[in-house]
Specification:
It is a single chain. Helix content is 57%, strand content 9%. The protein is built from eight helices and four strands; from the N terminus they run βαβαββαααααα. The N and C termini lie far apart (35 Å).
């Protein structure tokens, strides 16, 4: 019998969107449980590892941290490189994408206006250009995608997080300056199963 999957995350794209992409890619049924911050989160936060989402229930087991969940699903759907070193490279890419997204999430949720302005300035002038330039060089050096000529789970992780980042930043960050990354973004979105998922998903803001 196939495992029963239950994904818990807030009613947004965020760190769960790459996971949803991978479920869609593999045609794997799962329950998408939208956690309402003002209703569910106070009690739920006490019950999940480290008080953070997303978490993925797999029958009676629980997996946490979006990179680990995505890697697990990436292997399940055949998007994990067989070579150990190449697999580790994809782990490094996804972990760095997580770091990048976290910097933008920090700015977006900052409530102090002065600090938020400082974070925005740092993102615009230093953080975003540095991360995207390095990602662009990595993809270019590999010949198209982060793992070479074929899409891996790390490409899907990157696109899922970037879609959320651009939603918060309210600006297309890839099209003009980062052609390799923009191609990855489009190629992932044009995978038929992911394209179908996107056409039917809830109207997430970011």
């Amino acid at each position: 019998m196939a495992p029963v999957y239950k994904l818990k995350f807030f009613d947004s794209m965020g760190l769960a969107e790459p996971i949803r992409y991978l479920f869609a890619y593999g045609g794997i049924p799962y329950e998408n449980i939208a956690v309402q911050i003002d209703k569910d989160w106070i009690n739920l936060q006490q019950t999940v590892p480290f008080g953070k989402l997303p978490v993925l229930g797999i029958d009676n087991k629980l997996l946490f941290q979006s990179v680990a969940i995505s890697r697990y699903l990436g292997k399940l759907v055949g998007l994990l490189p067989l070579d150990d070193f190449e697999s580790a490279e994809m782990d490094a890419i996804a972990a760095t994408v997580f770091d990048f997204g976290s910097r933008v999430f920090e700015w977006f949720h900052e409530t102090d206006d002065t600090k938020k302005m400082m974070l925005h300035q740092e993102l615009e002038t230093k953080i975003i250009p540095r991360y995207l330039t390095d990602f662009e060089e990595l993809a270019s050096g590999k010949g198209g995608y982060f793992g070479g000529k074929k899409i891996t789970w790390a490409d899907i992780y990157f696109v899922g997080i970037m879609e959320s980042v651009e939603g918060m930043w309210k600006k297309n960050l890839l099209q003009r300056q980062y052609p390799m990354l923009y191609q990855i973004y489009n190629d992932v979105h044009n995978i038929p199963a992911i394209k179908t998922y996107i056409s039917k998903r809830p109207n997430y803001k970011y």
